[in-house]
C-alpha cells in the first residue's frame, strides 16, 4: 500500500484493439545504415515476398555520388559479376555497383506478444503483428561472380583440347534400379535439409509495389492502425480484470517447439507422448520397444493409468509371449509396405515374423537356419525378426530377451488363456501356409528314437492291441459302469453287452484335466505361451462342475460336439480339442463353457452323441502323441455314405495303412455295387477329409 501511495496514477488512457491489419502487419528491422545509403523514398527500387515462408527481398539504391562511396571498388565488383558485356540479364546495368539486396529472416517465431501502437488524442490503438523480419545484406552477386569465373576457365581449357576429345565423351554407364522407399526412409528424406531447401525454392516470389512515407496510399493504409469503432462490442478482449489484462499483454514465456533442435521423425518425448490418447501411447511405445513386460509398460504410462484400460489397448497391438508383450507384426509392417532388404511385401514379412514369435511361445531358443528354411526369407529379414525379441548366443542360437513373467501370468489368467487361444489360431494358419512338419510343431526331444525301427506285420499289431486291451479290461469296465450310472436315469437297464463295447486303447483318469495346448508334449521348459501346465488349467474342481450348472454345460458341449462331427465325420482327440479351443476363443467372457471341461467330459460327450472310438493299430514306434492316436467317428450321420463309412472304419480298425485297390474291393463286396476309382476317392474325401 505504501508503494501505491508513493506512485500515484497521473493519467488514464483508453486502449483500443485495431483489427483491420490483423494478419497483414509486419515489422521490418533494417541494419545499420552505411554512409552511402539512405532509407528514404527513392532508395527502394523493388520488393518481393514469399507469403508461406514469410520471406522478403528488398532491392535498395546506393548513393554512388556520396564522397564515402569507393567508385573503383564498385566498378570492380560490377565487372566481376557481369563481365565486359551488358545485356538484360546483367545485375548492374550501369557497370557500377549502384544497388544492394536485402533478405529477411524471422526474428521471432512467436509474435503473438507483440503489437504496433499508435497514440492519438489520449487513445492508444494496438494492432497485433503478423511477423517480425530482420533484413540482412544478400551476397548472391558473389556467387554469380564465381560462376562467371568458372565459365571463363572452362572456356579456356576447352579451346586447347584436340579433335579427339569427342571420342572421350563416350563413357560406359551403369543403370541401377532403386529399391522401393520405406516409410522411415521417406520421413528421413522429408526432414532432410536438402528437401526443405528444395521446397522453399519451389515457392514463387510475389512482386510488391513500394509506396513512400508521404504517398497518399501510405497515408490511407496508416488509418487502418486506428480502431474503426470505439464501441465496447468490438473491444471485448480488453474488458478484462487487471490480472487477466496483464496476462494478455505479458503471457508467461513458453519455449517454442520451433526453437528446439529438430528431433528425428521416430523420436517423441515423454511429455508429448502423454498428450496423446492411451491407445496411441501404447502403440508408439510397443512399436519402439517391441518387447516389454506389463509392469514396465505401466511405469512408462505414468501414475493414475487404469490397468484394465491398458490391458484392453495392449491386446490390440501386441501378443503375449512367455508372459511378456511383443508388438504385432502388422504394426511394424503396415499394409502396402515392403522389406528394405529384399522388397518382399508386408504380408509375407508378417507371416515370417509370426512364425518366429510362435516358436518362442514353444521354447526359449530358436535357430536362425530353421526359421530361414521354413519362411524362405532372406537372411537380413530373418535377422531383423530375431533382433526384435531375442539375443544371439554363441553356439546355441537366439534366446528370448526377457525372462518368463510369472507375476503377470498369476494375476491375469483370463488374459493368458485368451492369448493362448489366439496363438492356436495363428498356429493353424502357419501350418497351412508353411506345411509344417512334426519336427517344426514340437521341440526336439533330448533322447532320440531308436535308429532301427521294428518291422511289425498288421496281424501282429492287432494281437498286440488286443493284449493291451485285455490288460486294462477290469479298470475300464468299472469306469464304464460308473459313467453309465451318472449319465443315465435309474430306470435304465443295467445290462450291458460288454462284447459290443469298443475298449479304449489307453485309460482315461477321472481327474485328468483337459490339455488345452495342443503340441505341448515334450517341451523342455514346460512353457506354452509363457504358461506353465499347472497354471493353465481352468478347472477349479478337477473337471467337476457345480450341480446347478452341469445340465447347461452338458447341453452347450453336446451342441458343439454334434455340429462338429456333422461337418467332419472322423476326428482325432487332438484335432477335436483344437477345434474346441477355437470355439472357446469365439465365445464372450463369462460363458458357461469357461467353467472347465476335462478330457474325460469331452470324450464321454463324444460317445453319447452316437460316435464310436476306432482302434486304429498304429505302429508302436510312432511319434504321434496319445491324443493323436485316439480316433473317433460318427457311426450314423443319416446320409447316403453311412454304409460306405462303416465299411471303411472296419477296414482301418484292422490296419492303419491300406491300399486303394483293397478298399475298392471291400466296398464293392460289402455294399453290393461296383465303385470306380473316382467314386472311391469321393467316399474317402467325404469320410476322412479332416484326418487323411
TrEMBL record:
<feature type="domain" description="DNA-directed RNA polymerase III subunit RPC5 C-terminal">
    <location>
        <begin position="444"/>
        <end position="690"/>
    </location>
</feature>
<dbReference type="InterPro" id="IPR006886">
    <property type="entry name" value="RNA_pol_III_Rpc5"/>
</dbReference>
<dbReference type="GO" id="GO:0042797">
    <property type="term" value="P:tRNA transcription by RNA polymerase III"/>
</dbReference>
<feature type="compositionally biased region" description="Basic and acidic residues">
    <location>
        <begin position="146"/>
        <end position="155"/>
    </location>
</feature>
<dbReference type="InterPro" id="IPR045576">
    <property type="entry name" value="RPC5_C"/>
</dbReference>
<dbReference type="Pfam" id="PF04801">
    <property type="entry name" value="RPC5"/>
</dbReference>
<dbReference type="GO" id="GO:0005666">
    <property type="term" value="C:RNA polymerase III complex"/>
</dbReference>
<dbReference type="Pfam" id="PF19725">
    <property type="entry name" value="RPC5_C"/>
</dbReference>
<protein>
    <submittedName>
        <fullName>RPC5 polymerase</fullName>
    </submittedName>
</protein>
<feature type="region of interest" description="Disordered">
    <location>
        <begin position="146"/>
        <end position="169"/>
    </location>
</feature>
Amino acid at each position: 500500500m505504501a508503494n501505491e501511495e508513493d506512485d500515484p496514477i497521473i493519467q488514464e488512457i483508453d486502449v483500443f484493439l485495431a483489427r483491420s491489419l490483423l494478419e497483414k502487419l509486419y515489422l521490418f528491422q533494417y541494419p545499420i545504415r552505411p554512409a552511402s545509403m539512405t532509407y528514404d523514398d527513392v532508395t527502394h527500387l523493388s520488393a518481393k515476398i514469399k507469403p508461406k515462408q514469410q520471406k522478403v527481398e528488398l532491392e535498395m539504391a546506393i548513393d554512388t555520388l556520396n564522397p564515402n562511396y569507393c567508385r573503383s571498388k564498385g566498378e570492380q565488383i560490377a565487372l566481376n559479376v557481369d563481365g565486359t558485356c551488358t545485356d538484360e540479364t546483367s545485375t548492374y546495368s550501369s557497370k557500377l555497383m549502384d544497388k544492394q539486396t536485402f533478405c529477411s529472416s524471422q526474428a521471432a517465431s512467436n509474435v503473438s506478444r507483440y503489437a504496433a501502437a499508435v497514440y492519438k488524442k489520449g487513445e492508444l490503438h494496438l494492432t497485433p503483428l503478423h511477423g517480425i523480419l530482420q533484413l540482412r545484406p544478400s551476397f548472391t552477386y558473389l556467387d554469380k561472380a564465381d560462376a562467371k569465373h568458372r565459365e571463363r576457365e572452362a572456356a579456356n581449357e576447352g579451346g586447347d583440347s584436340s579433335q579427339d576429345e569427342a571420342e572421350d565423351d563416350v563413357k560406359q554407364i551403369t543403370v541401377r534400379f532403386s529399391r522401393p522407399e520405406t516409410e522411415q526412409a521417406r520421413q528421413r528424406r522429408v526432414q532432410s535439409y536438402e528437401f526443405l531447401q528444395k521446397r522453399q525454392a519451389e515457392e514463387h516470389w510475389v512482386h510488391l509495389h513500394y509506396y513512400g512515407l508521404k504517398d497518399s496510399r501510405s497515408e490511407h493504409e496508416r488509418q487502418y492502425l486506428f480502431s474503426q469503432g470505439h464501441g465496447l462490442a468490438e473491444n471485448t478482449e480488453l474488458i478484462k480484470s487487471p490480472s487477466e489484462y496483464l496476462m494478455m499483454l505479458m503471457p508467461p514465456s513458453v519455449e517454442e517447439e520451433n526453437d528446439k533442435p529438430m528431433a528425428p521423425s521416430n523420436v517423441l518425448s515423454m511429455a508429448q507422448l502423454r498428450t496423446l490418447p492411451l491407445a496411441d501411447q501404447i502403440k508408439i511405445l510397443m512399436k519402439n520397444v517391441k518387447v516389454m513386460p506389463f509392469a514396465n509398460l505401466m511405469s512408462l504410462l505414468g501414475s493414475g493409468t487404469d490397468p484394465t484400460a491398458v490391458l484392453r489397448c495392449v491386446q490390440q497391438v501386441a501378443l503375449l509371449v512367455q508372459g511378456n508383450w511383443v508388438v504385432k507384426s502388422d504394426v511394424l509392417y503396415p499394409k502396402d509396405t515392403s522389406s528394405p532388404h529384399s522388397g518382399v511385401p508386408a504380408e509375407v514379412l508378417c507371416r515370417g515374423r509370426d512364425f518366429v514369435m510362435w516358436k518362442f511361445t514353444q521354447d526359449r531358443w530358436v535357430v536362425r537356419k530353421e526359421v530361414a528354411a521354413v519362411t524362405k526369407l532372406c537372411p537380413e529379414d530373418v535377422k531383423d525378426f530375431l533382433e526384435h525379441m531375442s539375443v544371439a548366443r554363441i553356439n546355441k542360437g537366439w534366446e528370448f530377451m526377457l525372462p518368463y513373467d510369472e507375476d503377470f501370468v498369476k494375476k491375469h489368467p483370463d488374459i493368458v488363456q485368451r492369448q493362448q487361444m489366439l496363438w492356436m489360431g495363428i498356429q493353424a494358419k502357419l501350418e497351412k501356409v508353411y506345411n509344417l512338419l512334426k519336427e517344426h510343431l514340437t521341440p526336439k526331444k533330448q533322447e532320440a528314437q531308436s535308429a532301427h525301427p521294428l518291422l511289425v506285420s498288421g496281424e501282429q499289431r492287432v494281437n498286440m492291441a488286443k493284449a493291451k486291451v485285455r490288460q486294462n479290461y477290469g479298470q475300464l469296465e468299472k469306469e464304464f459302469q460308473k459313467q453309465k450310472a451318472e449319465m443315465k436315469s435309474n430306470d435304465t437297464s443295467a445290462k450291458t453287452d460288454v462284447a459290443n463295447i469298443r475298449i479304449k486303447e489307453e485309460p482315461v483318469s477321472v481327474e485328468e484335466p483337459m490339455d488345452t495346448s495342443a503340441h505341448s508334449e515334450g517341451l523342455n521348459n514346460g512353457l506354452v505361451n509363457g504358461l506353465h501346465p499347472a497354471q493353465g488349467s481352468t478347472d477349479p474342481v478337477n473337471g467337476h462342475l457345480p450341480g446347478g450348472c452341469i445340465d447347461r454345460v452338458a447341453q452347450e458341449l453336446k451342441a458343439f460336439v454334434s455340429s462338429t462331427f456333422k461337418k467332419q465325420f472322423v476326428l482325432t482327440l487332438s484335432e477335436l480339442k483344437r477345434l474346441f479351443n477355437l470355439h472357446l476363443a469365439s465365445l464372450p467372457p463369462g460363458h458357461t463353457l469357461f467353467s472347465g471341461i476335462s478330457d474325460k467330459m469331452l470324450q464321454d460327450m463324444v460317445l453319447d452323441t452316437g460316435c464310436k472310438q476306432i482302434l486304429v493299430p498304429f505302429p508302436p514306434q510312432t511319434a504321434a502323441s496319445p491324443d493323436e492316436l485316439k480316433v473317433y467317428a460318427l457311426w450314423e450321420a443319416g446320409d447316403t455314405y453311412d454304409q460306405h463309412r462303416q465299411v471303411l472304419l472296419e477296414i482301418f480298425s484292422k490296419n492303419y495303412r491300406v491300399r486303394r485297390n483293397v478298399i475298392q474291393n471291400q466296398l464293392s463286396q460289402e455294399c453290393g455295387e461296383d465303385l470306380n476309382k473316382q467314386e472311391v476317392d469321393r467316399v474317402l474325401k467325404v469320410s476322412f477329409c479332416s484326418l487323411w
